[in-house]
Design brief:
The protein has 8 helices and 15 strands. With about 425 residues, the chain is an alpha/beta fold.
């Protein structure tokens, strides 16, 4: 397979990955280009390109689909995006106690959500290419592939929004001449040391083991299925069980269906995510005939790497470890950090300076750094203290799960 000899297209900003982070970055970058160009004479119009490896944006859905109500204030979406409004979360502890807390938000249709953001980015002037993979970094930009055709794309700034197993992140590490060490905390970050229907999937997704290293490499393996509901479910349901090592199960309703899933982060032998999911389905009395389909994947839960910007590359979303280390929630952070990344990328491209990329690093860490550092502390507590004793595990969950007052209690310094 040879490289294409055609004239190389050049863009000021190329975003790899069209999830919430990438689409938000593309939308914001495209909207920023004209004002920036007017402020900098001779800067040109500024072209933005969004690449997505899947044939269709938003599919397959690999998300539990709950988002907090606050996201709607920052990211507009159509009414068709909302599957169900949520007001309450019920946490089921291993000792049998069920705790109800306020949790205003929505269970959304992620495919519609992503597609709506992508459509807005296109209207703002961004170009979109689907079924296109980013293969390698080049001197002028990157090498892409669509089908059997390879081609080079010129890019001043590259935004890596390509998920937890980010290709762009490996490029940035290579450019910087250093790997991202998970054993060290980011500069300025101090983390406290505290003690198809009718059948279930037969595939097993082995999670990575819990290690004494944090900072971007710790992943939670997740398995999920969509099910028909035989009766309405008004609240999101969270299940902790000794079998769901380092993680939890969930039932997130959206109308007549629900997402039922489990994430596990276990060390050594233990249930796979699919085995844990089978256990949860039995527990909540979901019949095999009610299962519509399956999905699965990995969720970064170790916090951000030391650096998320390089000479001409920035990372955002799961690629930047901006997912919450305890809940695994990442859509809201991805959208908000995507907006920051889009502004920074556009400004760096137009100004011809890396300074805005460094400002992006400071901005998002100033916004999220303390929250993520605290969550990493709680992740360490949960991982190290996990036990098969239901009473002891329940006490641990009360200290480390976001629904409980003790979650917010800080036992030491946790700053960025």
């Amino acid at each position: 397979m040879g490289r294409c000899d055609s004239v190389m297209d050049h863009y000021e900003v190329v975003i790899v990955g069209a999830g919430p982070a990438g689409c938000s970055a593309a939308l914001t970058a495209a909207c920023s280009m004209e004002p920036l160009a007017q402020a900098h004479e001779g800067a040109g119009s500024g072209r933005v390109l969004l690449l997505e490896k899947q044939p269709e944006i938003g599919l397959p859905v690999q998300c539990a689909e709950y988002v907090p109500v606050q996201l709607r204030r920052c990211v507009p979406w159509s009414p068709e995006v909302v599957g169900q409004e949520i007001r309450v979360m019920r946490t089921h502890l291993p000792d049998g106690e069920v705790v109800e807390t306020a949790a205003a938000g929505y269970v959304i249709h992620r495919d519609r959500f992503d597609q709506g953001l992508a459509a807005a980015a296109r209207r703002a002037g961004a170009e979109i290419r689907v079924d296109t993979r980013a293969l390698e970094l080049t001197d002028e930009g990157l090498l892409g592939r669509q089908g059997r055709r390879e081609f080079e794309i010129g890019a001043q700034i590259i935004v890596g929004a390509d998920g937890p197993h980010s290709t762009v992140r490996t490029w940035m590490e290579a450019l910087d001449g250093e790997g991202v060490s998970a054993a060290s905390d980011p500069p300025g970050l101090t983390v406290t040391q505290s003690e198809p229907s009718g059948a279930r999937s037969s595939s097993h997704i082995r999670p990575q083991g819990v290690r004494e290293t944090f900072g971007g490499d710790l992943m939670m393996g997740a398995a999920q299925c969509r099910v028909h509901l035989r009766r309405p479910v008004e609240a999101t349901q969270i299940y902790f069980d000794p079998l769901y090592v380092g993680g939890y199960g969930w039932v997130f309703p959206k109308g007549e269906v629900a997402n039922v899933g489990v994430g596990v982060c276990s060390a050594g032998p233990g249930p796979t995510p699919v085995e844990a999911l089978d256990h949860l389905l039995d527990r909540v009395e979901i019949r095999p005939s009610d299962v519509i389909g399956h999905s699965g994947g990995t969720i970064p839960c170790g916090g951000p790497p030391p650096h998320t910007c390089g000479a001409r590359i920035i990372l955002v979303g799961d690629a930047a470890g901006q997912t919450h280390p305890i809940t695994g929630g990442g859509v809201a952070n991805a959208c908000l950090c995507g907006q920051m990344a889009g502004r920074a990328a556009a400004s760096a491209a137009v100004c011809g300076s890396p300074d805005p990329l460094e400002q992006y690093e400071r901005e998002w860490r100033g916004y999220l750094g303390g929250v993520l550092a605290h969550a990493v502390t709680k992740r360490r507590m949960l991982s190290r203290g996990w036990t098969q004793n239901a009473i002891a595990l329940s006490a641990l969950v009360r200290q480390t799960w976001v629904a409980f007052p003790d979650y917010g209690r800080r036992t030491g310094s946790s700053r960025l």
